[in-house]
Amino acid sequence: MAMPMRFLKRLSPRRSEITRRWFLRPFGAVVHDPALWRLDRRGAARAFALGIFLAWLPIPMQMVAAALLALWIRVHLPLAVLAVWLSNPLTTVPMLYFAYRVGLALLGLDAGEFAFEFNLAWLGTELHRIWKPLLLGSVVVGALTAVLGYFLLDALWHWTLVRKFRSIQAAAERRAARSTLSE
């Protein structure tokens, strides 16, 4: 079994554990779809890309969005939800700031003055000012990193499969050479 598959299987919860949860009952048979739990190269890369894209979006409940979209497009559910954790309490602020700066650059705007205040009036004023560059930057950076993540995971998976195949082939050749020598 390839290295990415083993690693991802260790991180993923068991299908039986998840499908028994009370909050998944409304989804019924959809949750039992084998495509949501089968860990293959293309499905894993698609799920990873989905999770990375959603990680960049400044939306609440990214894990719920990842789960619902994984159900809809039928990709590996645990990996899509796990990949969302690229944005976590330590990385969210730098990621959103980077996305905001990218959005400013794409829109040709200047950042202007920025003074942080911890109140709702400030949040409403600043959110009105920054939402367009933040959303544009988040979508663009999210799409680019999702495509990059898709191809990187796919290439890593392919590389490990080729490496595993070559080691099996070399072992078979060594066995064949030993058996011809002993004859």
Strand content: under 5%
Mean pLDDT: 83
Q: How many DSSP E strands? A: 0
Can you tell me the overall shape? elongated
The radius of gyration is 22 Å
How would you characterize this protein structure?
The protein is 70% helix and 0% strand. It has 183 residues and is mainly α. The longest helix has 63 residues, at 120-182.
Summed up, what is this model?
With 183 residues, this protein is mainly α.
Supply database-style keywords:
183 residues, mainly alpha, 7 helices, 0% strand
Secondary structure topology:
Blueprint lengths: L2 H9 L3 H5 L21 H16 L5 H12 L3 H7 L8 H16 L12 H63 L1
Helix pairs in contact: 3-4, 3-5, 3-7, 4-5, 6-7
